[in-house]
Specification:
The protein contains eleven helices and ten strands. It has 360 residues and is of the alpha+beta class. It has four domains: 113 residues, no CATH class; 91 residues, Nucleotidyltransferase, domain 5 (2-Layer Sandwich), CATH 3.30.420.10; 47 residues, no CATH class; 41 residues, no CATH class. The strands form two sheets. Strands 1, 2, 3, 4, 5 and 6 form a six-stranded mixed beta sheet that branches. It has a four-stranded antiparallel beta sheet with strand order 7-8-9-10, with no helix packed on it. The termini are far apart. The relative contact order is 0.08. The model has no long low-confidence stretch (mean pLDDT 84).
Length: 360
């Protein structure tokens, strides 16, 4: 007697194909974002190897292709992959990312630590990222996206990699201690040596980070006091194209001063000089507005009123003018005299003795 049964369940046979005919180029949709921007990226990165050639040794292990790393960073920017560890994982798995980075299916993705090593050494020494950025701006100009008639400037705050609980006054820190000999500290001390004369308009910081002294003690980002940096942007208002960037400590004075640097550099590199500049009240100081007018740039900036104070010091309205004696009198009845010297051609400066100054 023979029994026959139909098997409708899963089969145990291995049906995996041994060979596939696969072409990565055919798997990326024609309207995919990375395919659309690849044409411009290829042109911008055309001379990256030439720019970086002096920074690579001819001996030792083969180096990671710098164009590959920059392409991966572009992927991370476009898709919000802020962690380089996560970025390498996504490029490993995603076909479109591999295609854009010119990696085949069996090509190895660089280790995430490669990015920080190159950023702190080859990329920084060669200034290649600014070179790439300026090539992009030039491409936007060629495409007619940058008009150069009107600019806007603004800054955002990036939190520093420094503990907000370990801030100290500058006098408390001994920089010669072995644990202080880091790259960030060496750059900070080199910057102090470069400033031959102290700037009277720039107040020394009350609190600095021992691990990252170039950062600034600020509450701008989210009203929580922390150490941070200002990311300053100069923007062409025609199509909101960023034409220059400049990092600074997160202090209003440094951010305003960086605008001068960006305007000068944009004129020097691209021959772009705006007729007007828009900004918020933080940039509305008399000194900066005067600088703009002197350069032939019309400021579209609200004037900052610094007469009223909320930091525990006296406001301008707290002082009384004594017309008979020609002096100002503070709320503590101390007299402010003037030397009679005219500053900026328009105003007299009145001062009291430091021994007479008392808090409110």
């Amino acid at each position: 007697m023979t029994l026959e049964a139909d098997h409708d369940g899963p089969t145990d046979l291995d049906q995996t194909s041994l060979f596939y005919e696969f072409r990565l180029e055919d798997r990326i949709p024609k309207r995919h974002l990375l395919r659309r921007i690849n044409v411009f990226v290829a042109a911008v990165l055309a001379d990256v190897h030439e720019q970086l050639q002096p920074y690579y040794s001819e001996i030792g292990r083969p180096s990671v292709d710098p164009e590959l790393m920059i392409r991966m960073l572009i992927v991370g920017y476009c898709y919000g992959l802020r962690s380089e560890r996560r970025l390498t994982q996504e490029v490993e798995l995603h076909l479109a990312y591999r295609w854009f980075c010119r990696l085949d299916l069996d090509d190895k993705v660089p280790h995430h630590s490669t990015f920080s090593e190159n950023r702190l050494h080859r990329f920084r020494a060669s200034d290649v990222l600014r070179h790439v950025f300026e090539r992009i701006v030039a491409a936007c100009m060629t495409a007619g996206l940058v008009r150069g008639e009107g600019f806007a400037v603004d800054a955002s705050v990036m939190e520093a990699n420094a503990s907000r609980y370990h801030g100290k006054t500058p006098d408390e820190i001994t920089w010669a201690e072995p644990e202080r000999q880091t790259r960030a500290v060496k750059e900070y001390l080199a910057g102090l040596d470069a400033d031959a004369e102290p700037n009277p308009d720039r107040r020394p910081p009350k609190v600095i980070s021992p691990s990252d002294p170039c950062s600034a003690w600020t509450a701008k980002a989210n009203k929580r006091v922390q150490f941070g940096y200002g990311l300053n942007y100069l923007i062409d208002i025609e199509n909101a194209v960023i034409v220059d960037v400049e990092p600074t400590p997160a202090r209003t004075y440094d951010e305003v001063e960086s605008t001068k640097t960006m305007l000068d550099r944009t004129e020097r590199r691209f021959l772009l000089k705006p007729k007007r500049l828009a900004a918020d009240t933080a940039y509305g100081t008399g000194r900066f507005l005067g600088w703009l007018v002197g350069r032939g740039i019309a400021p579209h900036i609200p004037v900052r009123d610094a007469s009223e104070r909320d930091d525990g010091t006296f406001s301008r309205s707290d002082f009384r003018w004594d017309q008979r004696r020609g002096v100002y009198v503070c709320p503590n009845d101390k007299v402010l005299h003037t030397t009679g010297t005219v500053h900026d051609g328009t105003m007299l400066r009145y001062r009291a003795s430091k021994l007479s100054v008392r808090s409110r």
